[in-house]
Amino acid sequence: MKKIWIFIVISFVTGFIGGSLSGNKLLSGLLPGGHTSASKAFEFHQGGFPFINPLLECEVEGETVEFKELVSFKKDIEGLVGSLKSKKWIDFSAIYFRDLNNGPWIGISEKKKFSPASLLKVPLMIAYFKEAETNPTILKKTIMFEKPDKSSFQNIKPSSVMQAGKKYSVEELIRRSIIYSDNDAYLLLLRNLDQKRLISIYTDLGVPLPIDGTNEDMMTVKEYATFFRVLFNASYLSREMSTKALDLLSKTEFRDGIVAGVPSSIGVVHKFGERDLNDKNTPKQMHDCAIVYYPEHPYLLCIMTRGDSFEYLDDSIKEISALIFRSVDSQFGKK
Questions:
Q1: Do the domain assignments include residue 261?
Q2: Are 190 and 124 a contacting pair, CB within 8 Å?
Q3: What is the CA radius of gyration of the chain?
Q4: d(CA 93, CA 285)
Q5: pTM of the prediction?
Q6: How many domains are there within the chain?
Q7: Among the ranges given (47-51, 94-98, 99-103, 248-252), the one the predictor scored with the smallest mean pLDDT
Q8: What pLDDT does residue 157 have?
Q9: 310: how many CB neighbours lie within 10 A of its CB?
């Protein structure tokens, strides 16, 4: 993975640095980062679609919009995180919450960088679906799977694995990469995509390439949340492709973390990521990013954690998710 990203960065610097930076225009309809006062800005969505809520326009200061503003619960989250640290469940965490109706957000250590690991399967999916908008045959292309990649270790293993010597369509590889978080499927997709197309996803959306000076993938929780926002708003991919992507994410096999903290009656689309270097001196990392479809008040929640045990890390994500759901429910639930 490091070698692949080094190649991507070299390609970017030498031949793609003059590429499209149209992301500023694409994202102009989204509210800027920060604890935006809901009385000054409000996102208007079309509604009426499964999974997505196409963004139409953004009201700004001077316009009058009536709605119930979500009361900040940042202190409650910080208190829970402190408790989880004291119990040694986590060493560190970063959290990003966003009300997808009107834009206000809460961030805790949202600028701290983590290794996104399997979370990177989402921007790769977006890259293929973007290509499919003008070249639908790309999804039918077949790729031979020679054998499992021995360097690809997964603590949470796919329930379904690919067969060596068999050809798989790009569409099936994307499905396996997202639903089962299959690293072999992901690597096949990555190696068979023009890297400039993957780079363009990051540059178009204004998300820094996940590389730091140590040649390790690194990204903040707020940066990563961008991918879920543009899928929900259908502001980068077409409505058809945005829906297709979120439909796959709704079928993700992993049901711990954020999903476990939300009642089963509430729809959730999400992607998790894990990082383990099998080094006692290097903390494990577990992340989860999701759209929780609370009735009439969907929200985006991304949580990144570091610690010694995957069991405690996903339990911590569950506890944070549950607290946030209760806070939202107390504001908007039926009395």
A1: yes
A2: yes
A3: 19
A4: 9
A5: 0.81
A6: 1
A7: 47-51
A8: 80
A9: 17
Instruction: Residue 248: count other Cβ atoms within 10 Å of its Cβ.
Output: 21
Q: What is the C-alpha to C-alpha distance for residues 295 and 297, in angstroms, rounded to an integer?
A: 5
Here the tokens at position 32 are: 């800027």
Residue 115 has pLDDT above 50, yes or no: yes
Instruction: Give the C-alpha separation, 76 to 69, whole Å.
Output: 17
268 pLDDT band (50/70/90 cuts)?
very high
Report yes or no on 4 lying in a domain: no
Instruction: Give the E-state strand segments of 101-221 in sequence order.
Output: 105-108, 113-114, 142-145, 166-169, 219-220
Give the pLDDT score at 101: 85
Its domain, for residue 273, covers 30-332
Task: Look at residues 115, 89, 118 and name the one whose alpha carbon lies nearest to residue 314.
Answer: 89
Closest residue by Cα to residue 102 from 36, 23, 46: 36
Sequence-ordered strand ranges (E) for the chain: 42-45, 55-59, 92-99, 105-108, 113-114, 142-145, 166-169, 219-220, 267-275, 284-293, 299-307
Contact residues for 38 (Cβ-Cβ < 8 A; gap 6+): 67, 69, 70, 99, 102, 103, 104
Q: Is residue 18 part of a domain?
A: no
**pLDDT for the residue numbered 10:** 40
DSSP 5-56: HHHHHHHIIIIITTS--THHHHTTTSPPSS---TTT-EEEE---SSS---EE
Spatial separation of the C-alpha atoms in residues 326 and 50, rounded to whole Å: 24
For residue 326, the one-letter residue type is R
pLDDT at 17: 28
CATH number of the domain where residue 164 is located: 3.40.710.10
Quick check: is 57 in a domain?
A: yes
